[in-house]
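Weekly modeling sync, notes
Attendees: S.R. (lead), two postdocs, one rotation student

Agenda item 3: backlog of single-chain predictions. S.R. asked that every request posted to the team notebook include the full sequence so nobody has to chase files. The rotation student volunteered to paste the first one in as an example of the format we agreed on. Action items at the bottom.

Example entry:
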Amino acid sequence: MVEAVRDRLRRPLRDLRISVLDRCNFRCPYCMPAELFTEDYRFVPRLHWLDFEEIERVVRLFTASGAIKIRITGGEPLLRPGLPSLIERLTALPGVEDLALTTNGVLLPRVAPALREAGLHRLTISLDSLDPVVFERMSGHRGKVSEVLAGIGAAEAAGFEHLKLNAVVQRGVNDHTILDLLDHFRHTGHIVRLIEFMDVGTRNDWDLSQVVSSREWIDRISERWALKPVAPAYPGEVASRYAYQDGGGEVGFISSVSQPFCGGCTRARLSCDGELFTCLFASRGTPLRSALRDGVSDAELLSLVHGTWRQRSDRYSEERGEATEGMEKVEMYRMGG
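Predicted structure, as returned to the notebook:
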């Protein structure tokens, strides 16, 4: 294994999340509220998107810096034309031990087989509720739960046996539907992960009163199905894992608000236009696109990446409060979740 470059808090660089475009076919209120992201909204021009060769070059630099896990995100990444060819490029790279993709699932029926054939290792699908009315509201009236379920079926048929299903939980919005969501996917081999509603970006009207803590969920779920904790699969794993004691599978909890995990964060994020971010709650990033297109050497690019990571001291979730109040943050749709 390559010795990873480390930041000021001695955290190694192990993960790179790549947003391949900033557009989405949903308008989830906690990410891209429809009233703000209208049809006239000016997204990043396509000429500014990193092409697949540029992305491959960046990934080579990151694997040379210790990164072993790559995740493709968006926006909605399946809207990026030719995405399976990028997957094929990245799975062929030495050092890439895990290649995953996060999607809302709607487009999977037409691309899941190609993604599997290209070598994609894992899929994560966002699914905030099985209630059709609640789901439609949480997708910004752009999606139907039946379409996501069809996408899950297509992924299963293509050979993705163990999916992760992410649900962002908001009190008073979808929390009353979560037990039904868990029940539906018990004994399927898929893992539902409950994500605390986070103050990502500045446009989602985040309110602490809407956060349902993971501790509360563990207690509520345990009243129906007995749970037992599961040891982390690897250092820095984001989700706390619990198994159903009756053998029904697992449920995960991502607790950025109530139990920050900044101390174990090993993730960098790359926007579609080549900006490198060292935190999900970052205010600014380091531009790589101009360097990529100005013909600089790999050694110079590597120096830029290493310098950025070594200066990293981000721990927003641990500092959340007066110290971060009013702070401008890059929107999640731009850097990937």
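Discussion: group reviewed the output briefly. Residues 145-158 form the longest helix (14 residues).
Action items: rotation student to repeat for the remaining queue; S.R. to check formatting next week.
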